[in-house]
Description:
Distance between the termini: 8 Å
Bound molecules: 2-phosphoglycolic acid
Mean pLDDT: 96
Strand order of the largest sheet: 1-2-3-4-5-6-7-8
Oligomer: single chain
CATH topology: TIM Barrel
Number of strands: 8
Radius of gyration: 17 Å
Order of helices and strands: EHEEHEHHEHHHEHHEHEH
Amino acid sequence: MRRHLIVGNWKMHKTAAEAAAYVRRLAGLVRQSAKVEIVLAPPFTALSVAALPAARRFAFAGQDLHWEDAGAYTGEISAPMLKALGCRYVILGHSERRRLFGDDDAAINRKVLAALRHGLRPILCIGESLGERRRGQTTRVVLRQLQNGLRGISKVAGRHIAIAYEPVWAIGTGQAAAPEQIDSVHRTIRSCFARKWGRRAADRLRILYGGSVKPDNIIDFLGTAEIDGALVGSACLNPRSFARIISQTQSARQ
Ligand code: PGA
C-alpha cells in the first residue's frame, strides 16, 4: 500500500519568523499518522525551520535547485545545500518555473539527476495547459514531460521519485480538475512507469494531484485509488486549512 503524501508548496510566502510560527502552530493541529507523510516546502530563506523541535513530524522540501553542486551561479541553491538543511524532497518542474523562469524539460532532467545524486527525492511536476487540453494534447504533453524528465535515471534511483500531476489551468484558479480527469492522467503516468521500469516500480510510484486542492475538495480526490496525495499551494498557507487537508487524508479510506 502506498503511503499518502501531502505537500504544502508555500511558493514565495512567509519570512523565516513567520515560517517558525507556522510550523509550531501546525504541529499543534495535526496528529501523527503512519498513513500520511506531511511535507512542507517553504522558501529557501525559511528552510532552517526544519531544525525546530516542532518540525520533527514533518519532512521538508526545496522548491527548486540548481543541477551543479557548487559554482558561479548567482542566486542559485544546490542539492547538497538543501540536503544540509534537512530536506528530504525537492519540487522540480513546477509549472511556474517552466512558464516564468524558462525551466525546460532538459534543465528539469538535469535537476532531477542532481537531486537523486545527493539523496533528495524529486517531486516531478508535470501538466498540460488549458489550450493543450482543449486541443486534445494532454496525454502527449504529460508523457513528453515525464519521459524527458526521467531521462538517464536508473530503475533503482527511480524508486525515489514522486510525480505531481498539476494541470496548469487548475493551479491557483479555484477550478480543480475533476477526479475522473485526474484518474485518467494518473493511469497514463503509471503505465509509462510500468513500461519503463516494470509493474512493481509502477505500483510503488506515488502520484499526487495538484491544482486548487482545498479542505472542501480533498476528499473527492482521495476516493480514487490512483491518487496518492496532493501538492497544495494557496490552501497550505494557513495552518488551520492545511491541517484540515491533512486530517481528512489521514481518515480517508486507503
Ligand atoms: P494551488 O497551487 O493549490 O494554489 O492551486 C498548487 C501548486 O501550484 O502546486
